[in-house]
Amino acid sequence: MLERIGTLAAHRARTVLVTALVLLVAAAGLGFGAFGVLKSEGFDDPGSDSYKAKHTVSETFGGTPNLVVEVRTGGRPVDDPAIADAGRRLTQALAAQPDYKDVASYWTTGSPALKSKDGTKALLVARSPDDVEKLPAPVREAMAADLAPKGPITLELGGDAPLSPTVTGQVGKSLAIAEAIAVPLTMLLLVLAFGSVVAALVPLAIGFVAIMGTFAELFVLGNITDVSVFSINLTTALGLGLAIDYALLIVARHRELVHGGMSVPDAVVRTVQTAGRTIVFSAATVAAALAVMLVFPMYFLRSFAYAGIGVVIISALAALFVAPALLSVLGPRVEAGRIRGIKGVQGAETPFWARLAGTVAKRPVLTALPVLAALLLAASPLLGVKFGTPDERVLPSSASLYKVGESLRNDYSSNEAHAIDVIVEGKGAGGDLSGYAVRISGLEGVARVDTSTGSYAHGTAVPAPGNPRLAARDAQLFSVSSTLVPKSDAAQSLVKDIRALDGPQNTHVMVGGVDAQLIDTKKAIADRVPLALGLIALTTFVVLFLFTGSVVQPLRALLLNGLSIAAAMGVAVWVFQSGHLSGPLGFTPLPMDTSMTVLLFCIAFGLSMDYEVFVMSRIKELHDAGASDTDAVTYGLARTGRIVSTAAMLLAVTFIAFVTSSVSFLQLFGLGAAVAILIDASLIRGVLVPASMRLLGPTAWYAPRGLRRLHAKVGVSESPSDTDERILV
Fold this sequence. Notes:
Blueprint: H1 2-11, H2 13-31, H3 49-60, E1 67-72, H4 81-95, E2 101-105, H5 106-109, E3 121-127, H6 137-147, E4 154-158, H7 163-194, H8 197-222, H9 231-259, H10 264-291, H11 299-330, H12 351-362, H13 364-379, E5 387-388, H14 400-410, E6 420-425, H15 434-441, E7 446-450, E8 455-457, E9 460-462, E10 471-472, E11 475-482, H16 489-500, E12 508-512, H17 514-548, H18 552-577, H19 582-585, E13 592-593, H20 594-624, H21 629-656, H22 664-696, H23 705-714
Parallel strand pairs: 5-13
Antiparallel strand pairs: 1-3, 1-4, 2-3, 6-11, 6-12, 7-8, 7-11, 8-9, 10-11
Helix pairs in contact: 1-10, 1-11, 2-8, 2-11, 4-6, 7-8, 7-21, 8-9, 8-11, 9-10, 9-11, 9-21, 10-11, 10-17, 10-20, 12-13, 12-21, 12-22, 13-18, 13-22, 16-17, 17-18, 17-20, 18-20, 18-22, 20-21, 20-22, 21-22
């Protein structure tokens, strides 16, 4: 198959390129429509109690307040007559807007919970459209003129409604900045890596095809199912990264063969046979690692699987068809625009990597132990890892949403904006529910329980009118305000305590709110992590067995790759959870974002397997040609070390640019992925792979007799006649 593809690329190159161009134009036409069908949510488990509660509240009870406007008076009391008058008119102006419901404020309700402890700030709450980013223009214009003469009064917007559009907008701006940094720098490094301007265009061609093709795939899927807009970011980063990886492999092998005396057409065919085989197995391992995200119920994670699988497959196809066809058409002109003094990546041995592999082979234990110790030390922060979900604290501290969130956590007696929603459904829901409300109000941390018939606090009814909006046919909504910090351990414990209470007879109880969503998200991911890890291990084992014919090599790869990822994630915990570097990077330390941690693991594992296949392809090629185990490892690493390290450096630049983001979970992903790539390409490939291969010796290629026979039938390998008989030792 690979020989036929190579022959097609060598002898029908223009036909291949014209076909690819037609497909690219069609993909671009579809792909640009992807931005209009993708969504910005998808962090919740649709089968969870909290998700169902959220939709019941919205559909049955019309929703709960999701917009908070904090009025800051510059130190003046909110009960000052002028301030109070302005506050009432602000409330009336917002209530007059057709899309804003249940508008209330401290000045219209007198609720102490809506006034800060020091009396200098007060809240206005409302149900608003989910995509609101700022107050309606008529309200802003009227209040700007009205409040200006009354002193330093400011309005800050907060709540759940503006969070998603604000974060999405910040992500878009951050990625534009990151790309403005990464793309020019990557292009410069590509020219230096390839040694010529024309050769450096090959990965750009592969990347453009992969990105446009995946955009088209996302457009189609976005019209069929829910797909997250954040999958666009993975498409661009991974598309360019894999294009660089595969182009380096193709061009290096092609150069090696041409410099060895082969004609361009023969070199193209041979390149596809050898480097193409590596690309096929690399794509299979990376796609398998990303595919496991399909087991998670949140479409935010599933979207990355859609994008990841698509971009990997299309990158591999472009590398197998487009890149060889370009090399065939360009011929010697691929070296045009050479940079004087820059040799560019080649397929021949690199002395540094040969010396490193030789040193490790002589003293495998002595060289491996310090590296193992360093990686285990780097992984140690994982022992104290905590997980959470994104909120306004992923934004810069100067953001209005951040300011309001901090104020709600610290300056008010209870958090009205993040009340716990308790829904009671069933025929008994219309009966006497006061006993249940009393039991909830008596739980530690509960400030007040509001129902359709009255309010309760500290295990007893309090003088307050009921809210008829909290009652529906065969359903009641209890709004539970607490004194606890949202998403804290204590707040999550309160949700668990409420769920542990027996509900009214003949009813079904659901508990929602941000704390319930956090609990359910963590449980949904934790329940599926064993399955995901099992699938990754199984698919990796199968693919690497088919690639190497050994049962030891997949186990070694899983162990070493797991170690490198643990170290990278430990660094991420040390930085983003513990808060080291929070000053220079400008983020707020938070528990690790649950979904982003899963994504980081899958991306890092897939790329580590990418480099594993790159290195093992040459080692196995030399081993099959008769080289000793030591020589196969030494010269295999010598021929691939520079390719892997160059690819890792270029890809790390793309990811490290995310650290410039103003959204902390993008910083986490960028830094974590970059660290994982660099650790893998240096310490794992340079030290632990040759050390482990030296210690294993011939055992590294062991497989039971039955599996050897199976590999002989179904394994994909070069035939003896195709194997390069010349071993450079």
